[in-house]
Design a protein that fits this description.
This protein is α+β, with helices and mostly antiparallel strands and 344 residues long. It contains five helices and 23 strands. Helices cover 22% and strands 30% of the residues. The strands form eight sheets. Strands 6, 9, 11, 12, 13, 15, 17 and 18 form an eight-stranded antiparallel sheet that branches. It has a three-stranded antiparallel sheet with strand order 10-16-14, with no helix packed on it. Strands 1-2 form a two-stranded antiparallel sheet. Strand 19 and strand 20 form a beta hairpin.
């Protein structure tokens, strides 16, 4: 009898211990969550995404949350002070944020300018700000001394073959620069890659870089892309190789500069002949985007013998579906000689 009592008590302890362990594990599982480990510092070049890991919430993590809340208050105070000087470069944010699926970047890249809180990995202009309605005067510094941020010409030789402006039936939103296939193409300013894509009807292989100073630059018709979205670049870093991909009649670099998604004449920033900046500061005002009135005029194509929708699509660099939508026709519609088709 005594022996059976002892055995029974021992079994009770084992069962209780196991149940407690399971309950404890369930509690841990409840607080477990997946998180990207990010290495980050004030220098954007050190921001990297490393392997995923699982970990449990514990007291040290709660302590870190309290510390982060304190840091947020400090950062808010610094941001308030920084806004008093529009030319001051804000570099104190070093908290990684997820801007798109599986892409983490340092938050400085989405807080440096208010409109930069938008991040798109597939749209060149996600800002939806109309340049024709731009009424402010903004002065953007093109160079910084502290911290040192520099600039660079995209190519060693800047020979313009087709300038910014109206080109036959379509507005050309950048400068075409002569190069040979395989030539190195470099980032114009320090920045982070926002887009690295292929556009068969237009830019071909192209890269768009977001810069600290509020500008974005685009590099089109590359033969090869050497960077990916989220990559941080210094001015002069090679981002791709020259080519003739997409809608192109020969090797060249299509180079654009944009502010809030609206194109700016690159020659307002760079003096291509002397390979220098025109000024250390760029002033943007209503006149900067005055070209949009002409660029947005409706233009038509008059159908000739032998014309097809696919041929017209290729000639003007627009999709067949867009031609159909602009003109209220279908892909099976019969084209008549002399018929006018809207193309812009």
């Amino acid at each position: 009898m005594r022996r059976s009592v002892i055995v029974g008590f021992f079994l009770f302890l084992c069962i209780s211990s196991e149940s407690f362990g399971q309950e404890n594990n369930r509690r841990k599982d409840f607080f477990r969550f997946r998180n990207k480990k990010i290495e980050s510092s004030f220098d954007p070049d050190t921001v990297n995404v490393v392997e995923e890991d699982w970990f449990a919430l514990d007291e040290s993590y709660l302590d870190s949350l309290a510390w982060e809340e304190e840091q947020v208050l400090v950062e808010q105070q610094m941001m308030t002070a920084a806004k008093e000087d529009s030319n001051q470069l804000v570099l104190f944010y070093n908290t990684p944020v997820e801007v798109s699926e599986q892409l983490y970047i340092d938050s400085v890249w989405v807080t440096i300018r208010e409109y930069y809180s938008l991040w798109s990995a597939n749209k060149i202009n996600p800002y939806e700000l109309d340049g024709e309605k731009f009424a402010d005067t903004v002065r953007l510094p093109l160079v910084y001394k502290n911290p040192e941020l520099d600039w660079c010409m995209p190519l060693e030789k800047m020979e313009v073959t087709s300038p910014f402006g109206l080109r036959r039936w379509k507005w050309h939103y950048g400068d075409d620069l002569r190069l040979n296939v395989g030539d190195s193409v470099r980032s114009a300013f320090d920045g982070i890659v926002r887009l690295a894509r292929y556009d068969r009807y237009g830019y071909g292989h192209y890269i768009l870089v977001r810069h600290y100073n509020g500008l974005e630059t685009l590099y089109g018709h590359l033969s090869k892309r050497l960077v990916e979205p989220g990559d941080i670049l210094k001015a002069g870093d090679v981002l791709g190789l020259g080519g003739s991909t997409g809608r192109s009649t020969g090797p060249h670099l299509h180079f654009e500069a944009r502010y809030q998604g609206n194109a700016i004449t690159p020659s307002e920033i760079f003096d291509f002949e002397s390979l220098s900046l025109r000024s250390e500061e760029l002033e943007i005002n209503a006149s900067t985007f005055s070209y949009l009135t002409e660029a947005r005029k409706i233009r038509f194509h008059r159908v000739r013998s032998g014309d097809t929708l696919s041929g017209i699509s290729y000639r003007y660099g627009i999709s067949i579906s867009k031609i159909c939508r602009l003109n209220g026709i279908s892909r099976n519609s019969i084209l008549r000689i002399g018929q006018r088709l809207r193309i812009t």
